[in-house]
Amino acid sequence: MPLDVILLVLFGALLHATWNAIVKAGSDKSLDAALISAGGAVSALPFLAFLPLPHASAWPFIGASAILQFAYFQLVAAAYRAGDIGLVYPLMRGCAPLLIAATSSFILKENLSGGALAGTMTICAGVLTLALEARRGSSRAVMLSLANACVIASYTYVDGIGARISGNAVSYTLWMSLLPPVLLFSWAASQRGTVAVARHVRRNWWRGLIGGAGSIASYGLALWAMTKAPVATVAALRETAILFALVISITVFKEKASIWRYVAGIVIAIGGLILKLA
């Protein structure tokens, strides 16, 4: 994998861990997740006029992605209500590339090289090391995280294919970001009432804008990278965001970290190095 692709994916990983921390720190995680999604859409709007429309064949993928993203943000909020970011984030994000690596040869007909497969599996091994401390966390948090890993793997496939056939990965990403916040806020209004939702937006709009810009930039970088390298490899490298989440969990949220979190971080870093050398 070229160095410029690796560096941009790593930068996207940092952005991804940061917006997850914003959701974790919020007082109402469901509405904050919806705000993040809306912030991404608002950040996308100014650029749409300067980019070509995705090819017609990509629009069904954009629609399918919106539904999966709706499920993803709902599960993100639920998981962070149930458990620590230092446990939930690695399980949620790290199991997805394992699923993709196991199935990409069937779905995308992509066969990873020995080095790429070794790096991918090393990163996944580092992530799954965190399961050793799952007994210290809520079983509900673990189950929600694993469920979201399946959703993440699903939309990674949908968007990886959609970005490739769209003709422009950036355009695909920006158009893809518009529908999920409509679904999320419609659901929130039906459950909470329009007044309560509007009050939260008025008080916390800045969180959504900052986090949303980071979210859309992070995912856009990943989709662009998927047009340059195998989807499974990019998905695995993107999960180095777990290292950033580990640092945030300790320094910002003052969560207690067992030795397994540090071991997992080291193994994940080694996996990233293997991908660079592959």
TrEMBL record:
The EamA domain is annotated at: 141-275
Alphabetized GO MF terms? transmembrane transporter activity
| Keyword Lipoprotein belongs to the record | no
GO-annotated biological processes:
lipid A biosynthetic process; lipopolysaccharide biosynthetic process
Query: Is the keyword Transport in the record?
Result: no
Task: Could you list this entry's UniProt keywords, alphabetically sorted.
Answer: Cell inner membrane, Cell membrane, Lipid A biosynthesis, Lipid biosynthesis, Lipid metabolism, Lipopolysaccharide biosynthesis, Membrane, Transmembrane, Transmembrane helix
Identification of the protein by name = EamA-like transporter family protein
Q: Which organism is it from?
A: Rhizobium leguminosarum
State the taxonomy lineage.
Bacteria, Pseudomonadati, Pseudomonadota, Alphaproteobacteria, Hyphomicrobiales
